[in-house]
Design a protein that fits this description.
Layout lengths: L2 H13 L4 H15 L12 H25 L16 H19 L3 H6 L8 H17 L4 H22 L19 E2 L3 E2 H21 L3 H21 L2 H18 L3 H27 L9 H8 L3 H22 L6 H28 L9 H4 L5 H18 L2 H6 L6 H17 L9 H31 L6 H14 L10 H24 L1
Antiparallel strand pairs: 1-2
Helix pairs in contact: 2-3, 2-7, 3-6, 4-6, 4-19, 6-21, 7-8, 7-9, 8-9, 8-10, 8-11, 8-20, 9-11, 10-11, 10-14, 10-20, 11-13, 16-18, 16-19, 19-20, 19-21, 20-21
């Protein structure tokens, strides 16, 4: 074939629609964004096993159809050329999975390490399915905005149900059979409020990203509405971990938007939308005669404190100012120093907070910090006793021998390990026992050792960095950057479970798929 014909052939290939295996992969992602978060066989009573089974079964169904596509020779001329070319993220994922296997094989708690039956069903079997999901989606997913629109809409519906549950309104009878004293901790189709907070930390960044990068005004308005619903979900989730995820991804979005007047205008508009959304909750509260579930400090302040109107006023002025700047400059990029200044400011604030946390946790343990002690001082009582699990987890990592330091005690065996040493102490102090560290990073460190922890952390960081580098040329990459950042940030205070954790591995795969396709298309042009 001549060079001219070959070039025409490539151009034609680019203009064609999705291949069969791309359709299967996109359909799988859509199902994870739409059916997965609402799939229940017995309301919330079996929600963890329901989501586990749904994720595993649909992943194997995707594998079946991908293999069948190859066996039947469908779209053979358009099969991906770089299918077996491994990136740094791929190698890290392979390493993580192999370490999990070795850790499970060497574990004192063999059955629990493979099945996760002693923890949250996150044993090696689920880790292997995460790898399979990553492998398939990273090779075959093709970005289409509609895929993420489905997630924005479905998450908005789920968050609206959460809003109703906040005021004891249960039209779908989801929580009605749960014991009354437990109903305050369970919400919408996700279940436990901490799990719901983790879910919103994935869904909210998607809506925010689409609201900012969408090209037309109607789309931006539509995504602002889904952003409003998702932010309402974050507020009624009533979890500090969710706000930590919010601050982390909004800080990155601020840096990203600072280089462009249009994006900064959209960013301010999103900020205004979020703040106004809190008063929608207040309005519903008035209609329900303030018959609501208890809200913690931050959520209560946002909903019921009149000072929030001051912040709403400031956000209006910022939005108007950003719009005037946009009307003058258009979509021209700002000078580099603007984005550098924004990045430096965010880095300075983050460093200051980290310094204060370390200082008041390790050096000055006596100064009365008032309510700030809930954030800035790590001790056994910190974070609803999360500090107890963190401190004991690090102690177990240091003292349980060389094998555990290298490959850990076995996937999802934190509960077995901590109970072997601190069972009676936990019962005496808390009246119950921990089965996770309530910090995914510490959990991976203890259960998969330094090798597993390093591999997982590399996957997370490399996915963010590689996507962030391509945001300037393809704005859609910001979706993956923010979703992974928000999940990773909230997971510092939360735990891995099949209810929400499949999403971060799915976004690892989506980020890799978009990177591979972007690089391949740019190398051909």
């Amino acid at each position: 074939m001549s060079k001219s014909k070959e070039k025409i052939s490539k151009e034609a290939g680019k203009s064609l629609g999705l291949t069969m295996h791309e359709k299967f992969a996109d359909a799988f992602v859509i199902s994870m964004f739409s059916i997965f978060p609402i799939y229940m066989t017995n309301k919330l009573f079996n929600v963890r096993s329901d989501r586990l089974h749904y994720f595993m079964v649909t992943t194997f169904i995707l594998l079946f159809f991908i293999v069948a596509t190859y066996i039947c020779g469908i779209d053979k001329e358009r099969w991906p050329k770089n299918l077996f070319k491994l990136s740094s993220t791929d190698w890290a994922f392979v390493s993580f999975t192999v370490v999990c296997l070795i850790s499970a094989c060497l574990s004192e708690y063999g059955e629990e390490a493979f099945t996760g039956s002693g923890g949250r069903d996150s044993g090696f079997y689920l880790m292997a399915v995460y790898f399979l999901c990553y492998l398939l989606v990273s090779r075959y997913f093709k970005y289409k905005e509609v895929v993420f629109t489905v997630f924005a809409v479905m998450s908005g519906v789920i968050c609206f149900i959460a809003l109703l549950h906040e005021f004891w309104i249960d039209p779908f009878k989801i929580v009605v059979d749960i014991k009354e004293y437990q109903q305050k901790d369970f919400i919408t189709t996700i279940g436990n409020i901490n799990m719901f907070s983790g879910f919103v930390c994935v869904s909210l960044p998607v809506s925010v990203s689409l609201a900012i990068i969408s090209k037309d005004r109607l789309s931006a308005i539509f995504y602002c509405i889904t952003t409003s619903l998702n932010f309402i979900g974050l507020v009624v989730a009533n979890s500090l971990s969710g706000y930590f995820g919010l601050v982390a991804f909004m800080a990155l979005m601020f840096v990203y938007c600072s280089g462009n007047a249009k994006r900064m205008f959209r960013f301010c508009l999103v900020l205004f939308t979020m703040l106004v959304s809190t008063k929608i909750i207040r309005l519903l509260g008035l209609m329900c005669h303030d018959n609501y579930k208890n809200l913690e400090d931050i959520s209560y302040f946002l909903v019921y404190d009149r000072k929030v109107f001051i912040f709403i006023g400031i956000s209006i002025m910022l939005t108007v100012g950003a719009y005037l700047l946009y009307s003058q400059k258009g979509e021209k990029h700002s000078p580099k120093w603007v984005q550098i200044t924004a990045s430096s400011f965010v880095a300075l604030v983050a460093t200051a907070v980290l310094f204060l946390f370390i200082y008041f946790s390790a050096i000055d343990k006596t100064t009365d910090l008032g309510k700030l002690s809930k954030i800035l001082r790590l001790n056994d009582q910190w974070g609803t006793h999360r500090g107890y699990a963190w401190i004991r987890g690090m102690e177990l990592f240091r003292t349980k021998g060389l094998k555990n330091i290298i490959v850990g005690s076995g996937p999802d065996t934190f509960g077995q390990l901590i109970k072997s040493v601190y069972r009676q102490d936990m019962l005496d102090r808390h009246g119950s026992v921990f089965d996770t560290a309530h910090n995914e990073f510490i959990n991976y460190l203890v259960t998969t050792g330094i090798l597993g922890f390093a591999s997982y952390t590399f996957i997370l960081i490399s996915s963010i960095v590689k996507s962030a580098k391509r945001c300037s040329k393809e704005p859609a990459f910001i979706i993956a950057v923010l979703a992974i950042t928000a999940y990773g940030s909230q997971s510092i205070f939360n735990l891995a479970t099949p209810i929400i954790t499949p999403y971060v591995f799915l976004f690892f795969a989506i980020a890799e798929a978009m990177t591979r396709r972007f690089d391949a298309e740019n190398s051909e042009s």
